[in-house]
Amino acid sequence: MLGEYRDSGFKEAPYLARRADGQVLQLPRLLYLVAENTDGRRSYEQIAEAVTEKFGRGVSEDNVRVLADSKLRPLGVLAARDGSSLKLERPNPLLALNFKTAVVPRGLVNALTTLFHPFFWPVLVILAVAGFVALDWWLFFVHGIAQGLRHLIDEPVFFLVVFGLVVLSAALHECGHATGCRYGGARPGVMGVGIYLVWPAFYTDVTDAYRLGKGGRLRTDLGGVYFNALFMLAALGLYLLTHFEVLIAVILLLQFEMLHQFLPFLRLDGYYVIADITGVPDIFVRMKPVLLSLLPWRKPDAQVTVLKNWVRVVVTIWVVLTVGFVLYAYGMLLLHLPSIVGTAWASMLALVRNTSTALGSGQAAIGLFSVLQIILLTLPVLGLGWMLGRLMQRLLVLNWVRTRGRPFNRVTGYLVMAAATLLLVAAWTPPRTHYQPIAPGARGTINESFDEAPSVFSQILSIAPPLRNLVSPSASPTTSASPTAASPAASASETPGATASPSPTPSSSP
Hints:
There is one protein chain. Helix content is 60%, strand content 7%. The protein has helices at residues 29-36, 44-55, 61-75, 106-116, 122-143, 146-154, 158-183, 214-242, 246-261, 269-278, 287-293, 302-305, 309-335, 337-360, 364-402, 407-428, 446-451, 453-463, 465-471, and strands spanning 3-4, 15-18, 24-27, 98-104, 191-196, 199-204, 499-501, 507-508. Helix 8 (214-242) runs antiparallel to helix 9 and helix 8 packs antiparallel against helix 10. The strands form 2 sheets. The protein has a 4-stranded antiparallel beta sheet. The chain has a 4-stranded antiparallel beta sheet with strand order 4-5-6-8, sandwiched between helices.
């Protein structure tokens, strides 16, 4: 029982409870009090008396029985009448971490947070932030980054050093989240690894931070990048002692990683910062209600009207920007998939050749680094395939569930999906791209990505004459659009009275 969600963005603050599987639930105060006073020993009458005293209004024995059987047991908060636990499928929220597995147990995590606890003393935080600002001024306006990059390119073996230090920094990033959680008075859980979108990532279970106020939650969110800053200061100190220029490249890479962490459209640190500033822990869950509430002819959804006015404005802005970002990212990914595949294949062949050459000439370190690169290239390619397959599965299941009892709507939905799939196949079919790698001169700008769209549509129309005639009725049936050979640029059940919130597990991509 995590208690009232403090500093929330709701007009009436919800209460939070965490199930045994780690899922956090939002409960109204009455449901929370019933769950809090249910211990397996008290009778319904005794629970009703305790709830009445705390709730300030009369709650009968029958009321408690109905709430327990119809609300709390289906949610998995209470065991079944025979004492058994219900087997509940944990939801897989949008853009969540997948294939995760615990690596560092809770006990060891708490031991590490005891070691790092002093780094959150206010005086040290102020000194560290001041030092980080001075580091950035020195790096970009005094010393520069050119020599660090030159040394790294001239001696590829140093990529192994850079990779190791970046992974170490990512591990310390998670220690920062856990320590920030512990410093505020909550207890962090396990640390582990998983796949976020298509990249390997570390994560830390800091669900217990929900019991903290806004300041404690924000400390937990920012603890990761704070420890990244400490790591960079340590790297600077080591550079001043050794003048090892590769350390400058490490600091530069970590600067980009910090900026990446603040992206608010993915489940990274920036998203959790916005969630805790607004006091809404499940913004992704509210995306559909917020969008539907923007339609003038629809009554605003209850999941929107429960928010405070200023919070509702901020969440609406975030939803609109996030939907645009996700649609653009997925659209460009599908549009340029042939070039991505071609680039990955060319890179894989080059890495295999480099590995063979390096090992054949006795350069074990360079050969080992090439093997590591092959592994790192294979993981996102497999992850990309899994992500697209998972997206298709979600759409198929969603259409099946939402159209139950409406066969016409169900068939229509599947026909639309089939048509969209055929259009994608047409867009991916040669001779449009021949799966050529991304050209050296391609910049990958937003303008470039949209400039590619006309050639894709031309390719689709040239392969699908009936569709072309529908789009351009005046065109002759024998006329075909000329495909372009230019390579595209790269681009990157609702339960009344209680809702589930995703556990806040900030992740950092290596």
